[in-house]
Amino acid sequence: MRKPYVVIVSEVTIDGKLTLDEGVSSKEIMKLMDEDANRYLHQVRAECDGIMVGSTTVRIDNPSLTVRYVEGESPTRVIPASTGNLPLDANIFDVSKAPTVIAVTKRCSNEKIKAMEDKGVEVVIAGDDKVDFVELLERLYDMGITKLMVEGGSKVNWEMIRNDLVDEIRLIHLPVVIGGDNVPSLVSGDGFKTLQNVKKYDIKKVFQCGNQIITEYTRKD
What we know:
The chain is α/β, with parallel strands linked by helices. The longest helix is centred in the first third of the chain and has 13 residues, at about 35-45. It has helices spanning about 25-30, 35-45, 55-60, 110-115, 135-140, 155-160; strands at about 5-15, 50, 75-80, 100-105, 120-125, 145-150, 170-175, 200-210, 210-220.
């Protein structure tokens, strides 16, 4: 299929958590990342021409998804949001910083689509009930996005991995433990349930970066 090269990049704790608690912004634990880790994260952003986060991440974290800490252009922001349920004052609607693509489904009303387009973003319809990530990635590739960074959250990570769309996973391991049964981890979803169905990856690289460990994995063919 035609699709961008996809890299999931995320900070995770020792116990694999993304936040302090359900509904809490991941920006809180990202405060633990030192300058070396932030440079690493933003260097990957600068190497990509697209960056994706889910609508929940937009509503909770209100990220800008721009390149800082290093030199480079900010990638096109891609937000899958089936019904367009996004606050119109969110940072991703500031297209003076970077272009934005919102992926919706046929469930999204024409009024919401127009309101988002009036903010200067491009809206694409991909799917009937839920965003079809296979179709979306084909559309992104046709737009000229050849390398896509995915920064979560856990539901988006699941959809990307479940559909065999991920080429690399890069994790910034923070040396803390959060705990909690309902705290989001790197991947949510239904899970693969059996060893025959799990997605397998090769270890590409492991190294220390400031006070963090970075692990990089490539998809096992």
